[in-house]
Amino acid sequence: MPGQSCWASVAAGSFFTCATRAGQSLWCWGDNLSGALGIGDDALVFLNLPRQVTTPAPGGWASITTGWQHACGIRLGGTLWCWGDNSFGQLGIGSTTGQSLPQQVTTPARTGWASVTGGEYDTCATRVNGSAWCWGDNTYGQLGIGTTIAQYLPQQVK
Q1: CATH code assigned at 53
Q2: Do residues 122 and 135 lie in contact, with contact meaning Cβ atoms separated by under 8 Å?
Q3: Taking the CA atoms of the chain, what radius of gyration do you get in angstroms?
Q4: Which of the listed residues 16, 62, 74, 112 has the most CB atoms within 10 Å of its CB?
Q5: Residue 1 lies in a domain
Q6: Residue 46: phi, psi to the nearest 5?
Q7: In a domain, 136, yes or no
Q8: 18-44, pLDDT tens digit by residue?
């Protein structure tokens, strides 16, 4: 229940916010455009109180980041999950279809993610081996892969 335990981290998107609690649960609130809240109901316009993200499981979230209208989180086991707007492939799941529930990023591997940060229409993450990976909009070469072509799957930074 919101208000009954400590917040551990918070990330603010364009019109929404997501935060983790000390018990590793994840909560989001605000504008749900494109399913940015990760609660599976993109018909719900906005929430003015936190609602728990329960997919793939209610707890076990280590970190959260937000972009313009998308979010990504790393779970305690090192898996990476993204949801919301995906018009430039910023979810890293191989398509441009938006998702209202968290979807696992499986390229280059299902586990081993250490950190993640969201841009406006792009996302970058590091792996436990120290490599950096980016995906999504690449109009200005912001992915660091040597091209300006959008990428729908994580690409290793050169």
Answers
A1: 2.130.10.30
A2: yes
A3: 15
A4: 16
A5: no
A6: -155, 160
A7: yes
A8: 999 999 999 999 999 899 999 998 777
